[in-house]
């Protein structure tokens, strides 16, 4: 269980303040408007932020999580790409090389045909799938993704969300997203951020109402549910 007892980020004009938020096994999605603090929250969890990190009491399985690299994989919103072959990049951050697992992941993420290409030359969606494979290779207990659906087409959005949902059966997966309907269809819990604060903390998607989403995004929204899938409409255009 990852417990955020208290996390504060102070950039001057913007302040993030999160208290009493906990994530166990499962897929946990963070939603919020641009600039609401999603990326700051994820950075704060891993302990990044230097002097801007004004407070941080984060626990992993009841131990204070000072160092997080040994149990958290983190895919930032923007990750610099460089000249390296995809086949080398996949295992770059994992402790041990496991070629059968690597082969499995290449097939799963449909990136076998990209092995000899440079990471710099990949399309947006190809890069995201390669980055997900790299994270999967690390096999850490927590996986965190910032704007996970960015760059993925409809097919791969569902593919990756399915993978994350399944991974949530035996680990903790935390993802910030913009596609609220996609997020609420797959997530085990949803956290809504607004102006650096939490307006719904680790709630079941069933409990997320039109009013909560409207407040979160500052626009009148209606949530509909069709066969366990979520659709979200703007009430007035
Ligand atoms: N290092 C920094 N110094 C000053 N302000 C910052 C810094 N990092 C982030 N901010 C500001 O803090 C606010 C929250 O930023 P953050 O990146 O957490 O938002 P976000 O919810 O991830 O937004 P988006 O959906 O656009 O990615 C923004 O107004 C941003 O400009
Ligand atoms: Mg962000």
**Strand-pairing-aware structural class:** alpha/beta
Question: Per the principal axes of the C-alpha atoms, what is the gross shape?
Answer: globular
- What is the CATH class of the domain at 1-71 and 178-237? Alpha Beta
Q: Supply Rg.
A: 18 Å
Q: What percentage of the residues does DSSP assign to strands (E)?
A: 25-35%
Given as residue ranges, the uncertain stretches (5+ residues, pLDDT < 50) are none
Mean pLDDT comes to 95
The helix count comes to: 7
Order of helices and strands: EEEHEEEHHHEHEHEEHEE
List keywords for this structure.
237 residues; alpha/beta; Rossmann fold; six-stranded mixed sheet; four-stranded antiparallel sheet; 7 helices; 29% helix; globular; binds adenosine-5'-triphosphate; binds magnesium ion
Explain how this protein is built:
The protein is an alpha/beta fold and 237 residues long. It has a domain at 1-71 and 178-237: Rossmann fold, CATH 3.40.50.300. It is 29% helix and 31% strand. It has seven helices and twelve strands. The chain has a six-stranded mixed sheet, with helices on both faces. The protein has a four-stranded antiparallel sheet with strand order 2-1-4-5, covered by helices on one side. It has a two-stranded antiparallel ribbon with strand order 11-12. α5 links the parallel β7 and β8 (172-176). 36% of the residues are buried. Bound molecules: adenosine-5'-triphosphate and magnesium ion. Adenosine-5'-triphosphate binds next to α1.
């Amino acid at each position: 269980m990852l417990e955020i007892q208290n996390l504060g980020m102070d950039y001057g004009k913007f302040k993030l303040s999160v208290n009493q938020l906990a994530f166990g096994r499962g897929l946990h999605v963070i939603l919020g408007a641009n600039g609401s603090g999603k990326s700051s929250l994820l950075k704060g969890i891993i302990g990044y932020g230097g002097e801007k990190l004004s407070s941080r009491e984060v626990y992993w399985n009841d131990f204070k999580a000072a160092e997080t690299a040994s149990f958290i994989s983190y895919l930032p919103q923007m990750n610099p790409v460089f000249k390296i072959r995809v086949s080398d990049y996949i295992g770059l951050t994992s402790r041990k090389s496991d070629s059968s697992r690597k082969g499995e992941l290449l097939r799963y993420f449909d990136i076998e045909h990209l092995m000899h290409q440079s990471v710099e030359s990949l399309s947006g969606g190809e890069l995201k799938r390669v980055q997900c494979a790299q994270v999967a290779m690390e096999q850490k207990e927590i996986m965190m993704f910032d704007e996970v659906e960015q760059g993925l087409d409809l097919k791969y959005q569902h593919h990756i969300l399915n993978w994350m949902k399944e991974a949530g059966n035996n680990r903790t997966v935390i993802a910030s997203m913009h596609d609220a309907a996609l997020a609420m269809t797959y997530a085990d819990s949803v956290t809504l951020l607004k102006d650096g604060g939490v307006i719904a903390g680790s709630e079941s998607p069933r409990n997320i109402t039109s009013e909560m989403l409207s407040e979160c995004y500052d626009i009148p929204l209606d949530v509909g549910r069709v066969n366990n899938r979520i659709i979200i409409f703007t009430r007035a255009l």
